[in-house]
Amino acid sequence: MNSFAEPEHIQMLRETLSRFIEREMPLELVRKWDRENHFPREIHEKLAALGLMGLTVAEDFGGGGRDIRATMIAIEMLCGRSMAVGGPFIQSACYAGLNIAEVGSERQKREILPRVVGEGLIFAYGISEPDVGADVAAVRSTGTVVGDRLVINGAKRFCSGARISDYIYTLVRTGPKEDRHRNLSLVLVPSQAPGITFEAQDALGLKGTGTYDVSFADVSVPIENVVGEEAGWNNAWSMLVGPGLDIEKMEVAAMALGIAAAAVDEAWTYAQERQQFGKPVSAFQSVRHMLAEVRTKLHACRVLTYHTADVLDASGKAPVETSMAKLFVCQAAQEIVLTCQQILGAYGYIREFDMERHVRDILVMPILGGSSAIQKNNICNMLKLAK
Ligand SMILES: Cc1cc2nc3c(=O)[nH]c(=O)nc-3n(C[C@H](O)[C@H](O)[C@H](O)COP(=O)(O)OP(=O)(O)OC[C@H]3O[C@@H](n4cnc5c(N)ncnc54)[C@H](O)[C@@H]3O)c2cc1C
């Protein structure tokens, strides 16, 4: 079934990535990376050599030109196979590429974007803190100007991929906390800078990148590491809630879509192979109906993800549509994966089957990038529902 008439460059991207996944990411390796919580850096570098990080970067900086639909398809395909490769791809193409292209200074664009494209430079997001989840503007980590340096102190939590990253894209308070939305800045902190320590958190899924508690003790960086430089000083809030946030919501939707698609493929195949009562279990109406439902929901997720990506490509900004896509796709994808797990019966619950990994990975999608509750708040508020 193919309902999408796709332009030639997208068809080529799909073919190239399919071949790459088959060749470089066989399932035995994918399972090993997950089991050992291993980041296969050599695969990331091969993706960069293919030019994949350039999907988000303008030609002036060595990329192929920003293409959100193509980026979402790459996320879907890579995350459907392995979060240990798909996660770092997002950290490079999106966290680094899209953010610096969107809100970096001209100097930062010239220095960083060619490295994203050529080397697959990796950023980690240092936004959440021990006492800061949805209420991002409450951050307590600080940046203090000392001469021509900025000195960072504080603690970040759930900093995914911090250990494999080149920079931590760190949100700090750089002015009095009374004006909580204005006095925030984003800072590029080299992940190996003296004064940074990491402590791994033991998360259920998203193996490969890992997620970390990161402490900053008098970490000193040049003042020009403030993202956007002068324009970015005390101005992080507008950077965080701008077009970058729309794309971040879509990144999570595309991850969830990829994981759900992989789960449907596995359940579809398994149901036709597993024999009970002398027939494949796909002959039983209850199983057939579950498979029809997951395929239908998956189709709806895909249509909504691609349509919203096209809106972003056309208009650059779609705060309501991206919240709707993030909310719907992540919830539906979770339902899809849990239904697929039921189709595998006991085998959906053991490590030998990929379904077990899909279940662990999908559970976090409605939480990441603004929880489902926060997306519902956004939709009502942006559509001005009376309070
Ligand atoms: C595996 C993993 C990886 C992550 N990676 C990163 C990362 O790389 N960088 C990073 O900065 N963060 C990361 N996070 C953190 C993630 O972004 C936060 O979990 C998320 O922002 C929600 O914060 P919280 O979990 O502290 O929930 P809280 O904000 O404490 O919320 C708890 C509950 O209350 C609800 N709630 C909160 N406020 C409201 C409200 N106003 N209205 C209605 N309901 C509300 C929430 O929906 C939730 O159900 C990661 C988390 C996980 C689990």
Automatic annotation (TrEMBL):
Residues covered by the Acyl-CoA dehydrogenase/oxidase C-terminal domain: 244-379
SUPFAM superfamilies referenced in this protein's UniProt entry, alphabetically: Acyl-CoA dehydrogenase C-terminal domain-like, Acyl-CoA dehydrogenase NM domain-like
Gene3D superfamilies assigned to the protein according to its UniProt record, in alphabetical order: Acyl-CoA dehydrogenase/oxidase, N-terminal domain (1.10.540.10), Butyryl-CoA Dehydrogenase, subunit A, domain 2 (2.40.110.10), Butyryl-CoA Dehydrogenase, subunit A, domain 3 (1.20.140.10)
Entry cofactors: FAD
Domain of life: Bacteria
All copies of domain Acyl-CoA dehydrogenase/oxidase N-terminal, residue ranges: 8-117
Protein family according to the UniProt entry: Belongs to the acyl-CoA dehydrogenase family.
Stored PANTHER family: ACYL-COA DEHYDROGENASE (PTHR43884), ISOVALERYL-COA DEHYDROGENASE, MITOCHONDRIAL-RELATED (PTHR43884:SF12)
Protein's UniProt name: Acyl-CoA/acyl-ACP dehydrogenase
